[in-house]
Amino acid sequence: MASGSQSLVKYDTKIQVSTSLKGRGKSPRKVPGRPNVPPDKAQIEDVLNSVLPPRESTEDGQLWVQYVSSTPATTQDVIKLQEQLDALLEARQARETGICPVREELYSQAFDELIRQVTIICTERGLLLLRVRDELRMTIQAYQTLYESSIAYGMRKALQAEQWRAETDVKIKTLSEECENLKKEVEQLEQEIEDIEINERDREEKAAKLHYEEVEFRKKTNQRLKENLEAILATPNK
After folding, report:
1. Which PANTHER family match (predicted)?
2. Which is the most buried residue in 23, 55, 178, 234, by most CB within 10 A?
3. Distances in Å between the alpha carbon of 31 and those of 49, 67, 68, 70, 231?
4. Which domain range does residue 54 map to?
5. How many helices (H) and strands (E) does the chain have?
6. d(Cα 127, Cα 130) in Å, to the nearest integer?
7. What is the count of structural domains for the chain?
């Protein structure tokens, strides 16, 4: 793992592995161990190397390897780790809330450094912390996958809602126009009904007037005929 970035995990000084990169890949290369290491410390270093693998880097065509430090941490080292964590969070502008890859990376490095410190004191406790770390990473990955799925689902629903709203707006516009046309038609029909009622009242009034005049005329006619008849009947016969 080539790495040139600053890490919160404490590593030893780099060791040169080879002076040339020619021929790499032709046969498996073993990373040399550190010489003159007591058996107990060698066992701790083997565990550390399995928990936190050595870092590799290349400089001027030369391959270098850097082992995680097996030096026990002091209280001052822990305080310094916290200060470095806060400084890097601020320097790299990590977000305080929500999903932030920068914050996740830095806290992961800090946790790895704590695992290193604990493993040196108690190997079993360090391995247990490693197990907890891996479980937490899997849980976070599951939540991140769920979050991304929910975002995709939300986007699909938002697009569907936007499309539905556009279709609904068209329907509302069409129905509004139909309502306006029906309203105008109703007003027109009401006007026609009012005109018909007015015409019908006028016709009835005219018919009633004609009927009244005809009745009066007949009354007068009957009255004259009655008077003439009475006059004739009253005249003596000669």
Report:
1. AXONEMAL DYNEIN LIGHT INTERMEDIATE POLYPEPTIDE 1 (PTHR13183:SF0), AXONEMAL INNER ARM DYNEIN LIGHT CHAIN 28 (PTHR13183)
2. 55
3. 11, 10, 13, 17, 160
4. 40-145
5. 4, 3
6. 5
7. 1
* Contact by Cβ (8 Å): 106, 85: yes
pTM attached to this predicted model? 0.57
Q: In what order do the strands lie in the sheet with 15-18?
A: 15-18, 62-66, 55-59
On whether residue 82 sits in a domain, the answer given is yes
Q: What is the pLDDT of residues 166-214, one digit of tens each?
A: 999 999 999 999 999 999 999 999 999 999 999 999 999 999 999 999 9
CA distance 14 to 216: 137
The CA distance from 12 to 76, in Å, is 18
CB 63 within 8 A of CB 17: yes
Which residue type, as a one-letter code, is found at position 16?
Q
Q: Is residue 164 part of a domain?
A: no
Q: Examine residue 3 and state whether it is found in any structural domain, yes or no.
A: no
In a domain, 189, yes or no: no
Pair of tokens at residue 234:
């009253």
